[in-house]
Design a protein that fits this description.
There is one protein chain. The protein is mainly α and 702 residues long. Helix content is 78%, strand content 0%. The protein has 33 helices and no strands. The radius of gyration is 26 Å and the shape is globular. The two termini are 42 Å apart. The N terminus is likely disordered.
Length: 702
């Protein structure tokens, strides 16, 4: 790539990174210094807890929520132009929230002894904690999720007055507060535990990798490989977002990180504004299902189901390939329809050179994948990957000062040997290595700058974890209500009743529920709500456990791409300079795999590498995997052709309907639908091939 093009690309990447990460207040101000100190303390405390786990689970969760709310109200107080009285109130709220977490620490033994019989002080502290969680969530994510959770809260308090079968036996105020705030079913439930351990750690890990330059590496490699192809910039968006998904696991974050680079280039080569924005939004949301890190929901799912995280990753592999493959295919057909070209060769970076230059940035990812599939917990694997990333950041300027190549090689060998000793001596060894590197950096020129980068990454990670963590705490209200009242059972009965007559209608009802709940609700609470309500019902209908939860997970993601709300589409709108609604409509076309794959996996669980289903029983597991994957690929190809309306030439309405019918038959798994689908697909492609030959012959004669 030319130097000017490279500088523009890298400047855009740097600007995009600054945009997404919700910058902290100006550190030169007093309030900025205070918030910086709180965020740094939060991050260091969380990493220490992840490494050594010195506290009980409920205390860990309570202090985590206390830190989150202290951050929320502190950031609110730091807003420019906020009146002094309101700033003071913010700090009172924040400190009070933090003290509710410490209450669990100080009185832990007493709380255990009087479990189920809370004191007046317990009720007061618990009520304050609940109210502050609601208010903190409202400030950081708006009204939608707090209002939904408030409905569940009111149902717990007054549901006995509802008509049968919506009512419950009734619970007094003390019981409800105790359920929500003094145990591990409410705001300190499983979602908060996952936030306090896995999610926080991986967000900080992502922050470190981005500081180390992995976004630049992914951008250069993907642009170098695919930028020159037909419709290349859009294919770059798909590939780079898939790569970013391995690190960040956040859909909207991917949109505003990678989008400022890819969307303008897509528009420049001829894609419409709406299509360019939709490609980035669709590909970015796929980051949540992209192994090995995936999204925060994957960690919550593993913890909820009590299965190894590696099992969730395994189930996601083939669907992720299909999702990004479908997006790539849609881009290719649209580019063919528009007759678009790729980027000029002089603007393409040398991907191999970029990979050779930045290969070491893949070491933490490689370490993470290795440890996960060796059976280590995500907490341990994430801690090690984070520590290795920090070691790389700190060691690079030290190695650069070693003039002779032999010295640099020896330095890296020794560092790798010491870091690898954590298998035998635990995390203390690698933290000792980090301490030694920090002392060396303090002694060399510009070493303090590297240390500031490390500290900034910690602070940035703490800041980015706030919205996710607060959402996890708030949706605990929903989980607590469902476990207290048993309300999920009634909803599950409805779905099971429908499923007795038609599994497809039951799945359709579940999909609509997920999409409706996803209107403005982030993926994490959406998954928690729908899995609590619907997951047991799908299990009763014979859907394997992981498949049933992946089904609602997928449609929680699709909700962020589906109008009228479509959070990812609206995040791309200002970058693409198109309306969020038009981008959302395009997203539904491009993300066809996200709508198709979950249904296919229910009928044939082998698509998610799960045992079960009549096909695997009749032909064997491996043949079933190959068969259903090939069927999914064929179905997606037909969906793409029908959606764009082009296959070598513009298609007529009845040809598009033909392709749609074939694709639909391949999705369902009722008697004869596969045979009909394959027959329609074969006839369609044969018809298209013969038509292409006739047009080619006519062209030669002309």
């Amino acid at each position: 790539m030319s130097s000017s093009a490279e500088s523009v690309s890298l400047a855009a990447i740097a600007e995009a990174q600054d945009t997404i990460h919700n910058p902290m207040p100006d550190r030169n101000t007093l309030i900025g210094k205070v918030m910086f100190g709180i965020a740094l303390t939060f991050a260091v405390w969380q990493i220490y807890i992840a490494a050594y786990a010195p506290l009980s689970s409920v205390v860990l969760r309570a202090i985590h929520v206390g830190f989150l709310l202290l951050m929320v109200f502190g950031l609110s107080a730091a807003k420019a132009g906020r009146p002094l009285a309101l700033r003071a109130a913010d700090w009172v709220f924040g400190i009070a929230a933090f003290l509710t977490g410490l209450y669990q620490l100080v009185f832990e033994g007493d709380l255990i002894l009087r479990a189920g019989d809370p004191s007046v002080a317990d009720i007061v502290v618990g009520s304050i904690a609940i109210v502050l969680v609601f208010e903190g969530a409202r400030r950081i994510m708006g009204w939608v999720l707090p209002l939904i959770c408030l409905v569940f809260c009111l149902f717990a308090l007054f549901g006995q007055y509802l008509p049968v079968p919506l009512n419950h036996r009734g619970f007094d105020f003390e019981q409800v507060v105790d359920q929500f705030s003094m145990g591990m079913e409410g705001i300190y439930g499983t979602p908060t535990y996952v936030s306090a351990t896995y999610i926080f750690l991986f967000i900080v890990f992502s922050s470190f990798l981005e500081r180390a330059g992995i976004i630049r590496l992914f951008a250069d490699v993907s642009i170098g490989l695919f930028g020159g192809a037909r419709g290349g910039p859009a294919k770059v968006a798909v590939v780079s977002s898939a790569m970013m998904g391995m690190v960040s696991g956040s859909g909207v974050a991917n949109v505003v990180t990678v989008g400022p680079v890819t969307i303008p280039i897509m528009k420049r080569v001829g894609f419409t504004n709406a299509f360019a924005g939709a490609v980035e939004a669709t590909a970015s949301m796929g980051g949540q299902i992209m192994p090995p890190v995936m999204g925060a929901v994957a960690f919550i799912m593993a913890e909820t189901l009590g299965v190894p995280y590696g099992d969730i990753v395994q189930a996601a592999v083939l669907p992720a390939i299909l999702y990004f493959g479908a997006a790539f295919w849609m881009v290719h057909i649209e580019a063919t329809r528009l007759g678009l070209k790729g980027l000029p060769k002089d603007e393409l970076p040398d991907w191999w050179r970029a990979l050779k230059k930045g290969w070491y940035l893949l070491l933490p990812l490689g370490t993470l994948i290795y440890l996960l599939f060796q059976g280590f917990t995500p907490l341990f694997a994430g801690t090690m990957a984070l520590a290795i990333t920090a070691a790389l950041l700190m060691a690079l300027p030290i190695a650069a000062r070693m003039g002779h190549t032999a010295f640099r090689v020896a330095f890296w060998i020794v560092l790798g040997f010491l870091a690898g000793m954590f298998f035998k001596h635990g995390v203390g060894m690698i933290f000792s290595v980090l301490g030694i590197l920090a002392l060396i950096l303090l002694a060399i020129r510009d070493g303090k700058k590297t240390l500031r980068t490390v500290i900034d990454a910690l602070v940035e990670g703490a800041r980015n974890a706030v919205s996710v963590g607060v959402a996890c705490a708030l949706v605990g209200i929903i989980v607590g209500t469902l476990t207290l009242t048993g309300a999920a059972t009634n909803f599950a009965r409805t779905i099971v009743a429908v499923g007795e007559h038609s599994l497809f209608l039951s799945l359709l009802l579940t999909m609509v529920t997920c999409l409706i709940l996803g209107m403005g609700v982030p993926t994490i609470p959406n998954y928690i709500i729908t899995s609590s309500l619907v997951g047991p019902a799908l299990l009763d209908l014979g859907v394997p456990l992981i498949v049933s939860h992946m089904f609602v997970f997928y449609f929680g993601i699709m909700a962020d791409l589906t109008p009228p709300v479509a959070l990812a589409a609206f995040a791309a709108a200002p970058i693409a300079k198109a309306s969020g609604l038009s981008i959302g409509i395009q997203c539904m076309r491009i993300a066809v795999a996200g709508f198709v794959v979950p249904f296919m996996a229910v009928y044939t669980p082998a698509l998610m590498l799960q045992d079960g289903g009549p096909l695997a029983a009749s032909i064997g597991f491996i043949p079933a995997v190959i068969y259903v994957f090939a069927k999914a690929v064929l179905s997606i190809c037909l969906w793409g052709i029908a959606s764009v309306g082009h296959w070598g030439r513009p298609l007529t309405w009845w040809e598009r309907l033909w392709a749609t019918a074939g694709a639909f038959c391949l999705v369902t798994a009722i008697p004869m639908t596969d045979e009909i689908g394959f027959a329609l697909a074969a006839a369609f492609f044969l018809y298209g091939w013969r038509g292409a030959r006739k047009r080619a012959a006519a062209g030669q004669e002309g």
